[in-house]
Design goal:
- This protein is mostly helical.
- The protein has helices at residues 3-10, 21-31, 45-58, 72-82, 86-107, 117-128, 132-150, 159-180, 182-188, 204-208.
- Helix 3 crosses helix 6 (117-128), helix 5 packs across helix 6 (117-128) and helix 7 crosses helix 8 (159-180).
């Protein structure tokens, strides 16, 4: 999907998340992060390297920066560490592990550190390639799994569903992180730091040239 269309569409879902002081501080710290020296806070070094590649598969560089160029991978790692509940952290770790294990097995590589974007892209594409019916079934299985975890059980989630869950969550976080970055917020989306007149039902094309509003 074209990046600008994706950003416009996501404005109706993830883009409206309240910009709390904690989230604002998190975004600012990501903007200031030196990527060359980046060491993940939540993920392992190898998982962080894979995440760096994955975010650019989802949002590669075009006429605007790639996801990694605006530190989306840093944002996701910090968000997982500082904002997610323990159950969410565990689910992310579990689903990411199954996703990366599939990539290692399919590529014939020995470790996660050996994975290239070319190794990761087919697994990501496969995870997204589901019918509407299967998507509904997957979400039901994920919901059942999470409820079992809340009840203190130790359930297992099908590997294919786990990879779907990881890919789906990752895509949402990548687009959200991209939208909340300083560059995209000010240069790609419609940006009005000091709101003026409120127009509740105005035409987006007329008001912003079709751009979704920046947070």
């Amino acid at each position: 999907m074209d990046r600008r269309i994706a950003l416009k569409n996501i404005g109706l879902s993830l883009g409206y998340v309240v910009a709390t002081p904690t989230l604002i501080s998190l975004v600012q710290s990501c903007n200031e992060q030196n990527v060359v020296e980046w060491t993940p806070d939540f993920l392992s070094k190898e998982e962080g390297a894979a995440l760096h590649k994955l975010v650019d598969i989802i949002l590669p560089k075009t006429d605007t920066p790639s996801a990694s160029e605006v530190n989306v991978h840093v944002f996701i790692d910090k968000f997982a560490k500082e904002i997610m509940e323990v159950e969410e952290q565990n689910f992310l770790k579990m689903s990411m592990s199954k996703f990366l294990s599939k990539a290692v097995a399919d590529s014939g590589k020995e470790t996660i550190a050996d994975l290239t974007p070319e190794d990761l892209e087919p697994v990501l594409a496969s995870a997204f390639k589901v019918t509407k019916e299967d998507e509904v079934k997957n979400f039901k299985m994920i919901n059942t799994y999470n409820k079992a975890i809340e009840s203190g059980e130790t359930p297992e989630l099908d590997d294919t569903v786990s990879r779907f869950a990881f890919a789906n969550n990752l895509r949402g976080m990548v687009i959200w992180g991209y939208k909340t970055s300083e560059y995209v917020g000010e240069e790609v989306l419609a940006y009005l730091p000091v709101p003026g007149e409120y127009i509740g039902c105005g035409d987006l094309q007329e008001l912003t040239g079709g751009k979704a509003w920046s947070i």
